[in-house]
Design goal:
With about 300 residues, the chain is an alpha+beta fold. It has a single domain, classed as DD-peptidase/beta-lactamase superfamily (Beta-lactamase, 3-Layer(aba) Sandwich). It has 13 helices and 8 strands. It has a 5-stranded antiparallel β-sheet, with helices on both faces. The protein has a 3-stranded antiparallel β-sheet with strand order 3-5-4. Strand 7 (about 260-265) and strand 8 (about 270-275) form a beta hairpin. It starts with a helix and ends in a 7-residue tail after the last helix. Bound molecules: glutamine. Homotetramer. It holds the Pfam family Glutaminase. InterPro entries: Beta-lactam/transpept-like, Glutaminase. Belongs to the glutaminase family.
Length: about 300
Amino acid sequence: MQDCLDRIATRVRPLAKRGRVADYIPALKCVDPQRFGLAVATLDGEVHQTGDSMEPFSIQSISKVFSLVLACNLVGDELWQRVGRLPSSNQFNSLVELELNQGKPRNPFVNPGALVIADLLTSRHTQMERAMVSLLRELSGNSTIDYNMEAAAGEFATAHRNKAAAYLMKSFGNFHNGVDEVVGAYCAQCAITSSCRDLAVAALFLADAGTHPITGRQVVAQQQVRQICALMMSSGTYEVSGETAFSIGLPIKSGVGGGILAVIPRFGVMCAWSPPLDDSGSSVAGLKAVELFAVKMNKTVFA
Ligand SMILES: NC(=O)CC[C@H](N)C(=O)O
């Protein structure tokens, strides 16, 4: 496996040139585009890794998987009255469908969907971003994970579209708390920094029917793993999720920090990091790394 990861790293690193580092969030513009990390955590607790796999990066929308987990635990199926489960052909920060769908976001992974979830969590936690940090610390075993306050503040200052989405949803009655409070917490959850190694280990419960194989904790019910992974497959890479399913065939979540999280059911979790992104906001080299691994190791949910 180590050999396989090293070879994949050598092959995909040059692809980073084809992408562009996100520049709409001030903290992300300064990240070195050459950074590259890969980690595969398997259900027996082993982690295979290469490159900058231990270096913390901004997890951005990968956090939406963990906020969805918290929301599923808190309210269960009630969640689906406020957030849809349909893929979207628009960009992750689009407002178009929100107006057409009376303020109900298409799915939990587009920004409006994640904002409704942040709103729901804000109703139940004094600081939902702390609840997210605690969950990641516990599941990864790394108690130093935290969010970067400067990155959160920088995003908040320019989060005009996210605030607009929140106000629009408020006008339809689908947003209960203060817009600034929730968008602030959302920017903080996106600004959590974590490494490929930590994210791969933290997400292992998704590959093991909801129970985290290292901590032994039942994080979510098996039925919820099925739902979360289905949503990752249909919407985890936004408007190109169909393409991602076609070429990779695994539940995947990307973030504009350049991270890619891929669940390999009954085997483990892979996390890749390379900051330059394609037009839809996913890491170019990261996605290719997951694809090469899935093909080489014959891992897909369809076989
Ligand atoms: N796709 C992403 O990673 C987007 C997250 C980012 N914080 C935003 O709200 O725009």
